[in-house]
């Protein structure tokens, strides 16, 4: 179990420095405030805040080396003009599902994934794609970052080829369902922590739909309230006890 003691001008600064050293995020650790910071008067009596930060291994997730996927996603964004030109020709003879499958397959190949299988189906205004590969972790990335980016880009590609708006959803080996369960468990655990400590708890930045999962999971609790702070992509959810 990883644990460090860290000093900072304030408690929040000490926690932030500790998270950087541990290479982890706020929701994966337990924080014990050993000493509150104090500014003092005219430089006298000042003291730094001190915290003990412990990584909670139960909730830690394996860190996947996602440098290649990130580079691929960035390259795709940089080359969006070329993609649009290609779609103008291909969209006349291919369905949105075919276009999306081809696009995803090309990205996967660039990521070094050559065994990807894709099952796609249309449900109203939604197109659902289930992906399978021996390198599923590479497709998902840390906390779904790569999968989310690929989903967003695929949606842009699909909607360039159709007159009506379609919502694209990508899933790899039921990751979305597993992630939702993990978020709901995290919500209850962090809410209990907020009540136990009497202090608000800030979670790590999340996409809007993941923040919504947290909101919904805690909607029936009357001892806490949840709200979002910050701006994208660093917007995060706060759980605060009701006093």
From TrEMBL:
Give the highest taxon in the source lineage.
Answer: Bacteria
Question: Which compartments does it reside in?
Answer: Cytoplasm
Q: What is its main location?
A: cytoplasm
Looking up Gene3D superfamilies in the UniProt record yields: 3.30.300.20, probable RNA-binding protein from clostridium symbiosum atcc 14940 (3.30.30.80), R3H-like domain (3.30.1370.50)
Record keywords: Cell shape, Cell wall biogenesis/degradation, Chaperone, Cytoplasm, RNA-binding
Please name the InterPro entries in this protein's record.
Jag_KH, Jag_N_dom_sf, KH_dom, KH_dom-like_a/b, KhpB, KhpB_N, R3H_dom, R3H_dom_sf
Q: Which GO terms describe its molecular function?
A: RNA binding
**GO CC annotation terms, alphabetical:** cytoplasm
Q: Which GO terms describe its biological process?
A: cell wall organization; peptidoglycan biosynthetic process; regulation of cell shape
Assembly and partners are described as: Forms a complex with KhpA.
Q: Which PANTHER family match?
A: PROTEIN JAG, RNA-BINDING PROTEIN KHPB
- Name of the protein described by the UniProt record: RNA-binding protein KhpB
The record lists the lineage as: Bacteria, Bacillati, Bacillota, Bacilli, Bacillales
